[in-house]
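User: Run a structure prediction on this.
Assistant: Running it now.
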Amino acid sequence: MAARNKAARSLFRWLIALVILAAVAAAGWYYYGRPKAAVIPPTVEVTRGDIQQTVLASGSLEASTVTSVGAQVSGRIETLHVKLGDEVKKGDLIAEIDSLDQTNAVKSAEAALANMRAQKEGRLSDLTQAQQTLTRTEQLLKQNLKSQADYDAANATVTATNAAITALEAQISQAELAVDSANLNLSRTKITSPVDGTVVAVLVTEGQTVSAAQQTPTIIKVANLDTMVIKAQISEADVTRVQPGQKATFTIMGEPDKQIDAVLRSIEPAPDAITTSDTGISSTDNAIYYNGRFEVQNPDHRLRIAMTAKVTIVLADEQNALILPSSALGTAGRDGKYRVRVLDPSTDEISVRQVTVGINNNVSAEIKDGLQEGDRVLALGAASAAASRQQGPGGGGRFRGPAVFGL
């Protein structure tokens, strides 16, 4: 009986072992024996589109010209004819200064001039009489009825009278200049705009007294807003790549999605760091920026002074070019060309192409030669993995079996 039980237990153990072996074999076949689906490596497609290489800058908008209109005579502002935002034309009346002092100055100068002219008339009468006396004395001298001394005295009187008239004529010229100056000062009590533009600042009020003794006080400022200027900072790393005449676009904070065309007109030769120190340039640890000046038309005056502008300067621009993401290129060789791997989806063949690149803005690259529209280029990580696999003649190969390709 005991022997029979022992045999039964031994058989049971063998059955359990067989079941375990069968389970292990099934699992091994499932994981290692069944066919595996091929993993397609990630690729990027060569497409067509527009591409630009640009430089970024930021700055603010300014009026193309700002003219300060000042008072050239002292006095009280009697009338102010404009207000902030008004459009003015050249010659329009801006303000009037109390003209009483200037009017009195004109009258005084004219009176002085009239006095000088009256004195001249009196001297001219004296001259006529002196010349007549000289003529008679000369005739009597010939008849020995007058002495030589009488003739010399008469002649001297004529000469002195002529000299007095000459002096009076000079004084009359000075008096005429005084009248002109007084009239000019009187006209300056009516202040007019010297240019067309928009009033962007009014610095005085009616009743305010202005003094032009030391310097010309500013009454208003008139700006030309038809053409605006953007003064933008260009970094020293980019300034060598830009030049006047290049096209640019910019956006303002109020319309960040709308690009406005502009043109780079000039680049200031020195950075903002320049000073009046002995060396001419102040030392600084900060980045150096050069001011570029961009011109933009503003016929509707939608752009305003001091608006912030984000500027994009176009260095190169190509339309409908072959484009490939820059990340798929890798590093250029010594000849400047790139080697990329192209997958043929119909055959799983991978071939190596040499590619010539034009514009490369580090996001997209213009393909000048080596690829065609629709080609599938292995992403950089996938290309590295494919390169480590067995290659066929000519650097190409066939994509075989399962593999894990990373970007």
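Residues 388-396, 399-407 have pLDDT under 50 and may be disordered.
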